[in-house]
Amino acid sequence: GEDVEQSLFLSVREGDSSVINCTYTDSSSTYLYWYKQEPGAGLQLLTYIFSNMDMKQDQRLTVLLNKKDKHLSLRIADTQTGDSAIYFCAESGPNNTDKLIFGTGTRLQVFP
Amino acid sequence: DAGITQSPRHKVTETGTPVTLRCHQTENHRYMYWYRQDPGHGLRLIHYSYGVKDTDKGEVSDGYSVSRSKTEDFLLTLESATSSQTSVYFCAINGQKSTDTQYFGPGTRLTVL
Fold first, then answer.
1. Cis link prior to A112 (omega < 30° from 0)?
2. Which of A46, A54, A89, B9 is the one with CA 20 to 30 A from A37?
């Protein structure tokens, strides 16, 4: 069955890089997403990557996809206190309108 | 921000009472989804809709029903609320273009006593 796994917590010092990891199981996934959830708020789409790509960079964010190992990562450069949140990875099927399967979320804590 | 609102934002109710949550969008998107978020589970899909009067079940649909009588509104109903349905409920929308992705509403926190 489909399953998406993430580590639960990550703590980093302000200014360092953060790397949040995710593994998924559905090899037919075409789209993989990263969402950010701040306390008491909904999910905000950060970035997404197509399965035919292995890297995508968007300002401080770098997404790496290893399709062979079904491993997705999100790197945040120069992590700031405002980056403290829960980060969810999600996979979808062959169509971008397919339902999303979410990981359990990684809580990122940034300390000064 | 995508034009998605949810109502109510917070609700406390008693076991056995019916509850209806509303999701409203102004984007004219075809696809709408209801998820619940619980600690240790991430978000799980309850029901989704791919058009007016077209709905289907998700991963955790037991105890829930939905209706979509017009494009902009997607209603989630708990016919007889139970304490296990205490959760935060999120609505999401998606268009049809290949570049569209899911955007989420602000959530509804439901407590069933």
1. no
2. A54
Mean pLDDT of A31-45: 90
The two counts, helices (H) then strands (E), for chain A are 0, 11
Chain A residue numbers touching B44 (CB-CB < 8 A): 102
- What pLDDT was estimated at residue A1? 44
Q: Are strands A55-58 and A71-76 parallel, antiparallel or unpaired?
A: unpaired
List pLDDT tens digits, range B55-94: 999 989 999 999 999 999 999 999 999 999 999 999 999 8
B107 in contact with A, Cβ within 8 Å:
yes
Q: Where are the alpha helices (DSSP H) in chain A?
A: none
Interface contact flag, B94 A41, Cβ < 8 Å = no
Asked if A43 has any chain B CB less than 8 Å from its own CB, the reply is yes
Write down the pLDDT at residue B99: 63
Tell me what pLDDT residue B98 has. Answer: 59
